[in-house]
What we know:
By secondary structure, the chain is of the alpha+beta class. It has 3 helices and 14 strands.
Amino acid sequence: MEACKRTDPGKCWRHHHRRVINKIGHFALIFGAAFLACDTLYSQDANFPVVISGEQYLQQFLDEVRTLQAEFSQELSDPEGQVVEIASGTMSIERPNRFLWLYRDPLEQLVLADGENLWIYDIELAQATVTPLSDVIEATPAMLLSGDEAVRDGFSTLENFSEDGLSWVRLAPNVSGSDFRSVLIGFKDGELARLELIDGLEQITRIEFSEVSVNQILRTGLFNFDLPDGVDVIGQRR
C-alpha cells in the first residue's frame, strides 16, 4: 500500500481491487446460501431437540441445494482488522460446477464457471482470463459449494461453534498449495448466511448473503460466457 502514496490513487485502488477479485475467483467467492425449512433436528422425544451444528447444515446444503441466487456484500480486512475494500453484487449457483458472481460496485467484474472453465472478465479493461476448472485446486470454497459432494473430501473440519447468532463450521483444505488457510461457514435458522475466508497473509474476506432464492429454475444460458467483440483473452479454455 506504500506504493499507493507515490502514484495515482484511483489507479492503485483499481489494481488492488482486480488483484483481490482474481484471487477470489480461484478460491472463493462463489459460494452460496440455502434456505432449509427447520433449524433443529429432533430425537424421538420432541421435547429434547438436538441442535444442528454448522457441519450438519453444510451437509444439508450439499444434499438438498441444486440452484441458488442471492445478493451479496463483501469486505476485505487486513491482518490488523482494518477494512481495505468493500464490494457488492449478485451471485448464482447451479451444481455441479456452474456459478456466476457479478460485481456491481465498486467496479463491474464477472466471475463465471461454465462447467468446464473459470472466466474472470474485467468489463472496464475489456479483458478476460480463462482457466480450465480441472486446473483449479479442488479444495476451494468455490468448488465446495458449487461442485459435487465428492469435493467435500478435500476439506477437514477444524471446529463447530456458535457466535453472533450463527452456527459456524471451520474447514481447512487437505491439499497443500492452496491460496487460503481456512474457510468459516455460518448458518442462521437453517440459511447459510456468511462466509469468511482467511488467506496465508491473515487477510479475511467476509461475504454476507441476502435475498436468497433456492432451487428455482434459472435462466437458460446463464452460465455461458459469450465473449464480447474486442475483448482480449488471457489463458486457454478447455
